[in-house]
């Protein structure tokens, strides 16, 4: 049931990419437990604007847990403590009256901070641009039912394809590795007949781009899977390893 | 070279050398266990594995595996630290399903490496190294050469001292943690895993790690408890029974 | 005949959509056979700006680049993949007839036209149905993991407003998967260098030179700098303007600013009043609320909608004294099944929304506000088992539980209509070109295919149809005679002037330094829109809304407070610029709703209804698209009409009863 709580927030403020950041503490009273975490930040920003201070910059968009824009490191967890939840779907009923909540941006060399809690995740786009596609032009395509796809395979591909590209895997990983993100895409196409033609080239190109962009090495801790809001399994990483190694050995 | 340049290549090296070391440990632990049951049989094995060409080839391969595994570990960790960025998280919490070992492989590895030095000093330097030097014509103590193939003697000598038994138990616990993550991680890096097998592979790895450590740990435990043919107060073992 | 009557009543000028000759089924084929094309060598010399990376924008940018054009693609988010198309849940329609249930291109066309309450352009809708099948093929080839049957073939589900199963889906994340497909095609072109991608850029103006669109002014949202970009043609796929209502199912950054900029540069704004209210959204629950969450229409396949039959029960539920599960079957009013036996819970969105509102207004609503109805899965769980229901709707149920903290497997969901989609938008002709030459508008941003109401699973279809299969053809007909035009310098006086005006506008907003936050003004506008330009509209209310919007505009321009600097990442400034345009859109919507003295689709004028409370259309006087021409700040816009002449389909009163 709805009630109101008082909380203290410790939020990372950083004026720009090159400026040194620090934590600021804010007290917030009478927050409805029915509000989402981002709505709570809206209330804080509204208060800051009223006090004629600069509000906190944070990324957010759909607020339905699908666009992958929001990403805050809350009390030591990307997207907060709830499993399979994005920050926008995290609700204040998960917090208690008097709690202190620490909010930080994703911290990784691959995702430099732009301002406050906003980071640059352009590296993910670059990895997809390197090979995260099936090379088909528009038009001249055979019928959608021309190649049957076994249901379980389509389902597993869909599991991988549900990645929202939020970057929580990188944020959670002590090595700043982007393997789960890359694996999800490689695995999706490796499972579908449409992805077979470029299978080897894709794995090589995407991994090499990932390495080039300064992401760390996967040490199979599984933190990415634990924090992934879409619960993407690290078994996809095993598939990526397999794809990559077999591609390299074939060379 | 993709084995150095690419993250998955580097992981392949880690997993192959790691898997080699696991196999070695498995062999070593079974061999050790023999010492508890029958010290003379153990000595016979040691004599067989002295400074022969096959033992030397295996030893150098093993040494290379160790060195590569360790060097890559530092290399990878350094890169990973760099990938994490300059600002650290102020608050970190444990994630569900993430084992402590997996997050601390480097520290565990360093602990293991430290003890490995002690271990090599205590056993290898008194056994294979002595034989090797002797064969190479270096001047060596006759008593030492005679004892070089008598593994059970050295086992008895060190593990009769509780301080070493306890140190070895600590070491083996660290090794167990390292293996619980290392074994399945090596399979994962090789790509030998899928969703169905993920929990199975993890369990199998735990079983392998536990078997290895139980076999190993039997010696210091027997040493502490003064149990078995080697450590009981009325042990009849003597390195040279015919004398 | 219709045409004559309408023109005789109001003397609005008529505009021509340039519909090709021939029978319905031949028009698009004829057009393609006779249109002008650009040869490959010349394509390289032509630049095209595409604004937006949603289904329409991304698919257009990718397809144009594949053809060989140089494309500059802009989006306001940090990645093209964030565009709000990603949030579409239910599915995408196509006339494949894989289910052998009698579907055809004609039937999809007819259902869409009828669903839109006969206010869409016949030729466009037919073309849409015609290319729908290619979209599915295209997406499958891109590796979109559509749901499949055990035999490995594509699965379908049924959706509102249709009697066949023609909706293709990928769990409850169809929009995401289709967008990622388009995004991957786009990424491929970015990787090749044929598309230059500008993320975190917001278009702030179109630059028109000698009557043709030749570029845009955009603000870099990271540095705050205002920059100029030139091209031979400009394509805008910037989405809908539903956020004029403040609370809607749209993402936070969805806005109508690009549409307003085009409008102010001479593009007509058509049917602004046609906004869709989606029946199955999670009800409003607090003042702090920032957005409304949609629950997919697919839920109506297995969920039954009801309210208590007795007022006293409804009251007891509202006060928390009674639980919905306590109510016996005979005390429940399944009002959609009662009113529309043939379609039951699967009536089109506008009909379902209005029926829910009618029950709540009559005092039968539930929830603590009384503004909610139940969507109940009890019967389906009994019939199919919880596992099947979980497999079909698991992620939606989970989302509901996260937001509302209630378990929908045990107690019925509560839902209420909310603003979801805008059928209205920038007027385009058959070629998707606006009234400004060289300025094209695609996807939800244009007005074209949905008439007064959009059927479920048709937005994805239209976005991708425009981007993959229509615009890449029609734009060549325009560009064919532009091949000799050299690239434009952004130093031209037109660019300079446009940039100056934008910079001044920003400076003006920054310098107001008033007392109101941007959000508080936006919220005030949203309330006026919902109360008077929402689900039920009337003359008096709309006139009142126009007055109130004037006041809000004055308040904004004299009392808004935007902190920070303009040459920096400044979210408040971004919002302020958008709210300034939402005020313009709100006014246009109210004006258009006032003009349209009939009820049709999503536009319900309370004065015009049948005795049973159904929408009462007036085909004699209002069978046209109302197109508004901007006449300058503070001036009244001029009305133009595109007469919607139906050559092939006979208009009928929509009937979902039998």
Order of helices and strands of chain B: HHHHHHHHHHHH
The number of helical elements of chain B comes to 12
The DSSP helix count of chain A reads 8
The value of Rg of chain B in angstroms is: 20 Å
Q: What helical percentage do the residues of chain B reach? A: over 70%
Mean pLDDT of chain A: 96
Under CATH, the homologous superfamily of chain B reads Fumarate reductase/succinate dehydrogenase, transmembrane subunit
Task: Tell me the CATH architecture of chain B.
Answer: Up-down Bundle
Count up the domains of chain B: 1
CATH topology of chain B, by name, is: 3 helical TM bundles of succinate and fumarate reductases
Helix and strand succession of chain A? EEHEEEEEHHHHHHH
CATH superfamily of the largest domain in chain A: Alpha-helical ferredoxin
Assign the CATH class of the largest domain in chain A: Mainly Alpha
> Percent helix among the residues of chain A?
25-40%
Alpha-beta content class of chain B: mainly alpha
Structure description:
The complex is a heterotrimer of chains A (251), B (243) and C (658). By secondary structure, chain A is α+β, with helices and mostly antiparallel strands. Chain A has two domains: 4-104, Beta-grasp domain (Ubiquitin-like (UB roll)), CATH 3.10.20; 122-135 and 148-250, Fumarate Reductase Iron-sulfur Protein, Chain B, domain 2 (Orthogonal Bundle), CATH 1.10.1060. In chain A, 35% of the residues lie in helices and 14% in strands. Chain A has eight helices and seven strands, in the order ββαβββββααααααα. Chain B has 243 residues and is an all-alpha fold. Chain B has a single domain (2-82, 100-231), classed as Fumarate reductase/succinate dehydrogenase, transmembrane subunit (3 helical TM bundles of succinate and fumarate reductases), CATH 1.20.1300. Chain B is 75% helix and 0% strand. Chain B has helices at 2-5, 7-37, 39-48, 53-84, 100-103, 105-122, 128-135, 142-147, 151-159, 162-189, 197-225, 228-231. In chain B, helix 2 (7-37) packs across helix 4 and helix 2 runs antiparallel to helix 10 (162-189). Chain C has 658 residues and is of the alpha+beta class. Chain C folds into three domains: 21-237 and 429-482, FAD/NAD(P)-binding domain (3-Layer(bba) Sandwich), CATH 3.50.50; 278-418, Flavocytochrome C3, Chain A, domain 1, CATH 3.90.700.10; 499-622, Methane Monooxygenase Hydroxylase, Chain G, domain 1 (Up-down Bundle), CATH 1.20.58.100. A five-stranded parallel β-sheet of chain C has the order 5-2-1-9-17, with helices on both faces. A five-stranded antiparallel β-sheet of chain C has the order 11-15-14-12-13. Chain C has a four-stranded antiparallel β-sheet with strand order 16-10-18-19. In chain C, helix 12 packs antiparallel against helix 13 (386-404). Chains A and C meet through helix 1, helix 2 and helix 3 of A and helix 4, helix 6, helix 7, helix 13 and helix 14 of C.
